[in-house]
């Protein structure tokens, strides 16, 4: 039995980046061997075990062959006879197909270290084209390592185009696709993710609504530069689309509720925010009501941030004005109206009227 660190832990150590999660590979062992040493099996699909003390995952070396559509359409074979090289060749990129033994010796049968030095994201073998999820993964890696100068090899981009043209991307589940999209959007250069999808022909298959939305990439880049949360980044990406297109993308990938809500609100009210200084108090109140700024102030802050990102480094003077308007509306007290005997619909209308007066005064001030 031989145990190796594999994948990202080796890659990031060689790049001088922090290593968080470690994937372990076991060569020359059987399931029975793992049980005998106290390892606990995880799930039923893969020969993966939890270490009895650390709880880290250890996978048996395995081979795979294509047996169906999508990223799950593979048959796996784990055996003590599977070599380290046979396991590594099934991986996506050369920089992810390296291993390191307990003495720190790096095993690199497919040229991962050279590609690290040359800043190239290159597929390991033609089998890359069998897994459509790898299109999203490579685009995500491109976003992650763009600050270091990495780019996708042309041959790999060609295989990604082949996958896009095959229709295999349609076999990806919404949940698995969103997991990659979410991780990519939270990288330091998320616009690179979208650009690589476009260059590979995958964008028109997965998000055709964004094919002509190149202006949103600058806003997405700004959102990353300002370390905005996921919902703001998703809203920046979808800004400018028609409401129906925003809703279609939200539903297609089953985006989290807060992402869906903010994207729809930005799509509907970004123009109002940009014109906030000229907006009539009644229209301003309508927008504040829609955002429920009284109970959900952070959502309105995220909205302002998404609008500001579209302006780049030019600044967004509307931001302070919008915050002041929200504060003026929130300052209206309900208690005096209740003490005056109002309730139900009457109370709601009176409260709305008082808030409108507050906004009129705010605008004049």
Automatic annotation (TrEMBL):
Pfam families in the cross-refs: PolyA_pol, PolyA_pol_RNAbd
EC number: 2.7.7.72
Amino-acid positions noted as binding Mg(2+) in the UniProt annotation, renumbered to this chain: 21, 23
Broadest EC class assigned to this enzyme: transferase
PANTHER family (UniProt xref): MULTIFUNCTIONAL CCA PROTEIN
Additional facts recorded: A single active site specifically recognizes both ATP and CTP and is responsible for their addition.
Name under which the protein is recorded: CCA-adding enzyme
Gene: cca
